[in-house]
Amino acid sequence: MTETIFKPGLEGVIAGETAIAAVEQQSLCYRGYNIADLANNTTFEEVAHLLLYGDLPNAQQLSMFNESLAQFRHLPDAVIDTLRKIPTDVNMMDVLRTGVSMAGHFDPVKGESVDDLRRRAMWLMATCAGIVAARYRLINQKDTVDPLPGLNHSEQILYQCLGEKPSPTAARLLDLTLILYAEHEYNASTFATRIVASTMSDMVSGVVTGIGTLKGPLHGGANEAAMEMLSQFTTPEQADAWIHERFAKKEKVMGFGHRVYKNGDHRAHILEAELRKLAEEKGQQKWMAIYDAIKKPMVEEKKIFPNVDYPCGLTYYLLDLPIDMYTPLFVCSRVTGWAAHFIEQATHNRLIRPLSKYIGEPSRPVAPIAER
Asked: Confidence class of residue 243 from pLDDT cuts 50, 70 and 90?
C-alpha cells in the first residue's frame, strides 16, 4: 500500500497541472512569456487575452476584446442600488464580494461553452472594475460616473473613480500593477476558485470564492498593510528605528517574504523601478527614503526580500487612491487569472477532494443519555 504523506498547508504538494503560469525561483511566466517581457511590452488587456485565450492577441483580436469589455462596463441599476445600501464603513472587499454576487443575477452571457466562459470572464473583468469605482464614488457622496468610450481598462478605472481622465503616468502605473497581479499559479484564491470549478458550479461563484479567499490577510491585503506601515513615518530615521525595534521583537514586517520566492519577487523589481520614477515626477522622494529605510535593513540584515505588495502599496498611494481600495484593485487584475483557471479546470475536470488526517478521539461507544 502506498504511504499517504501529510503536508501541512499542502506545502510542496503538486495538486494539479496548469498551462497558465509557472512560478519558479528564477522566473515568473504567463503561458511561456516572461513577466518582465510582458510588463515592458504589453497592456493589461493583452495579458488578459493571453490568460483567457492562450496567446497574445493581434491588433484585430485586441480590438474585438476591447469592444467586448466596453459592452460590459455598465452596471445594472440594481447593483448600484445595492452598493448604495451597504453601510459606508464596510470593508471594500466585502462590498466587492457582495457586488459581484449581486451582479451575477444579471449575467448577460448565456451558456457554458469555452467561448461563453471566456466572454463571462470579460464581463467579470468589467464588472469588478465598475463595482470598485462605483463604491468609491458613493462613499465619497458623489454620483457614479458612466464609462467613457475610448479609454483602456486602467484609464477607465481611474476615470470612473476620480471623475477625470488620468495622466498617462497614472494610467501606465495602474496598468503595470494589473499586469503583475494578474496570475500566480496555484495560490490560495486560485486554488479555491478551481475547487469551485471542479464541483461544476458557476464562474461567478468561483470569483466570489476567490474574493473571499483573497480578503484573508495571509493571502491578500499585504499592499494595504505595507502602506499603513509606511504611513506611520515622517522621516527615514523614524522608519529605521522602527524596523530595528521589530527585529529585536522578532515581529513580522508586511510586504516582505514569499511562500515561493526565497531570493526576491521578480514583480517587485519591475514595479519598484517605475515607482521611483513616479515619486520623482510627483516630488515625493521623501516616501522613497522611508521606503528604502525599511527595505535596506530587511534585505541586508535579514536577507528577506520585498514582495510585489511592498512597492504596490506606495504606488497606489502616490496615485491618490485610498488604502481600502488596494486589495479590490488586486481583484480587478486577478479575476483574469481566476477565470483562466476556472476554464482550465472545467475543461479538464476531476473533482478536487483531498484526504485529511484524523486526530480526534478514538472509536468509542454512545452511552445512554442518563449515563453521560
From this structure: very high
CA distances from 298 to 244, 262, 282 (A): 9, 13, 26
CA dist 196 → 20, 280, 337, 342 (Å): 18, 44, 14, 8
Q: What is the dihedral of CA 300, 232, 321, 313, to 10 degrees?
A: 20
Q: What is the mean pLDDT of residues 341-351?
A: 97
Q: Which helix (H) or strand (E) holds 28?
A: strand 27-30
Among 258, 265, 266, 341, the one annotated catalytic: 258
Q: What is the CA radius of gyration of the chain?
A: 22
Which among 190, 158, 233, 144 has a CA at the least distance from the CA of 339?
Answer: 190
Strands 21-24 and 33-34: unpaired
* 309 in catalytic set: yes
Q: Cβ(255)–Cβ(249) under 8 Å? A: no
pLDDT tens-digit map of 130-172: 999 999 999 999 999 999 999 999 999 999 999 999 999 999 9
Distance CA 95, CA 245 (A): 36
Q: Which residue of the set 153, 202, 309, 341 is catalytic? A: 309
CATH no. of 222-318: 1.10.230.10
- List Cα–Cα distances, 301 to 38, 82, 292, in angstroms: 32, 49, 13
Burial label for 296, CB within 10 Å (0-12, 13-18, 19+), is middle
- For 247, half-sphere exposure in the C-beta direction (CA atoms, 13 angstrom radius) is 16
What CATH number has the domain spanning 16-215+327-347?
1.10.580.10
For 278-330, how does the pLDDT look when each residue is reduced to its tens digit (9 = 90+)? 999 999 999 999 999 999 999 999 999 999 999 999 999 999 999 999 999 99
Residue ranges per domain, the chain? 16-215+327-347, 222-318
Q: Measured between alpha carbons, how far is 49 from 57 in angstroms, rounded to an integer?
A: 6
54 Ramachandran zone, left/alpha/beta (phi>0; psi -120 to 50) = left
Question: What grid cell was written down for 322?
Answer: 485610498
What cell does 117 get? 466562459
